[in-house]
Design brief:
Layout (H helix, E strand, L loop, with lengths): L4 E5 L4 E7 L2 E10 L12 H14 L7 E3 L13 E11 L2 E8 L2
Antiparallel strand pairs: 1-2, 2-3, 3-6, 4-5, 5-6
Length: 104
């Protein structure tokens, strides 16, 4: 089986897009601790670690971790506009890494 890869460069991150079992996945760094982010906030490692643990329990493990193409103006993703579902999220040092399946 051949795997296809596409690298998309964002201003801050590289994301890998690939096919696995005829599904399309994206993965990469979705947040970082100890650095000032685009919203001019700086989150301590302990805060993001706790948030990732809680998000995994409440959303990822229940297949409810939806996302939209752009950051919506509300604090949650609307299923009507969902473009992807996070299937894995973890801390890698100061980075929050996630893998998501692209929805059809």
């Amino acid at each position: 089986m051949t795997k296809e890869f596409l690298i998309i460069e964002d201003t801050n991150n590289l994301c890998e897009v690939r096919t696995e079992d005829k599904e399309l996945y994206i993965e990469g760094i979705v947040a970082q601790s100890e650095v000032i982010n685009a919203n001019l906030r700086k989150y301590p490692l302990s805060v993001l670690t706790e948030a990732v643990d809680r998000y995994n329990k409440e959303y990822v493990l229940k297949n409810k971790a939806l996302g939209e193409l752009n950051h919506p103006p509300r604090p949650y993703a609307d299923p009507q506009y969902a473009t992807h579902r996070i299937v894995e999220m973890k801390m890698l040092g100061n980075d929050v890494w996630a893998k998501a399946i692209v929805l059809k």
